[in-house]
Design brief:
globular; TIM Barrel; alpha/beta; single chain
Length: 316
Amino acid sequence: MNSPVCKLFNIEYPIIQAGMIWASGWKLASAVSNAGGLGLIGAGSMYPDVLREHIQKCKAATHKPFGVNVPLLYPSIEEHMKIITEEKVPVVFTSAGNPKTWTGYLKQHNRKVVHVVSSSKFAKKAEEAGCDAVVAEGFEAGGHNGREETTSFVLIPLVRSAVNIPVIAAGGIATGEQMLAAMVLGADGVQIGSRFVCTPEASSHPAFKEAVMKAGEGDTLLSMKKLVPVRLLKNNFFTAIQQAEARGADEEELKNILGRARAKKGMFEGDLSEGELEIGQVSAMIHEIKPAADVVKEIWESFCKAKKKSMNDSRC
């Protein structure tokens, strides 16, 4: 496809798999890249030596481009960045922090850099920092989210009008029809997370995948705005956080409730009651587990079908 995103990353389809914690290891990233998209390793849940192992295994499993997603709030960020440059990872997606901090360093090492944003204001800052593209992530997305609660349909055109670099849409996208809608609004490609959770290659726990497939409308909600806003499936942990927020709990109390390794407990170890279960609203549309390559193919084929249908619509 003649897309700025395809040219930027040297990929066949403008479909990027999000670098989700506890779900996006080398198996998922290499499978998506081999299928023609861009696979990302989610470094946020990895110790430095584990990240290096996943990068090396990904390089052995695919000869196509892949990347690493690095949350900038990660405590061992310096080690992660050193490993990424040493292992010659071609693409780096950054999130949850100031892009100025590491973009210059990565560009000096000839890496393509993309930053995830939740507003046009931050998109401009990412462009000014030297990023090659931005991900405009709407309120519907799972995981870390923006406090502004701007939906994808509003955010995408706002970001498109604010920057001159490629825009990748994220949040509430799991089908080719949704991909087409995002691109009509100005996106040059899409980043998809939740749909890839329900693949055999995703490293998330089978119980979590099952919970995602059972989720319906309204079963996720943005939470923990006083800490780092995150969209969660509702469970006992979510209820405890919600009750604390309702009575005006401060950051310290919320941190105590959150504790350590809560996301690992839920998404990787499968504790559906007390774990942190990060997933997007689009989980209500996901009903089966299928290989990542089939997901990429299905999205692309339905995108092409929807695009052809819209061009042939007699009402246009």
